[in-house]
Design brief:
The protein has 108 residues and is of the alpha+beta class. It is built from 2 helices and 6 strands, in the order βαββαβββ. Helices cover 22% and strands 32% of the residues.
């Protein structure tokens, strides 16, 4: 199982959600509002804040869905503008379902 962690522009959330829900067996996701900055920072003359609003998606998926989820997010989120976001793929060693105590390395 892998964790797909994506940082996207807030205005792309609806389109990405709809596209991901079309994937057969899509396991669901968590959405969080966050702020941050990358290599290129914007500067405001008054009240300097380099942080830009982003949306963080967390998706835990089995190996066979990772590539389709990654390419779907990349396709829908891309506007060819700096700051479209980033995606990371991380190993998830094990998960547990709180409601019934089920533990599995492939819990989706």
């Amino acid at each position: 199982m892998k964790e797909i962690r994506a940082y996207i522009q807030p205005n792309k959330l609806s389109a990405i959600t709809l596209a991901l829900m079309e994937i057969q067996g899509f396991p669901g996701m968590t959405v969080l509002e966050c702020e941050g900055f990358g290599r290129e920072r914007t500067q405001h003359i008054q009240d300097y804040r380099p942080f830009m609003p982003k949306i963080r998606l967390e998706i835990f998926a089995p190996e066979h869905l990772v590539e389709i989820i990654l390419t779907t997010i990349m396709r829908v989120a891309c506007s060819r503008q700096h700051g479209d976001g980033k995606i990371y793929i991380l190993d998830a060693l094990e998960g547990a379902r709180i409601s019934n105590g089920e533990r599995s390395p492939d819990l989706g």
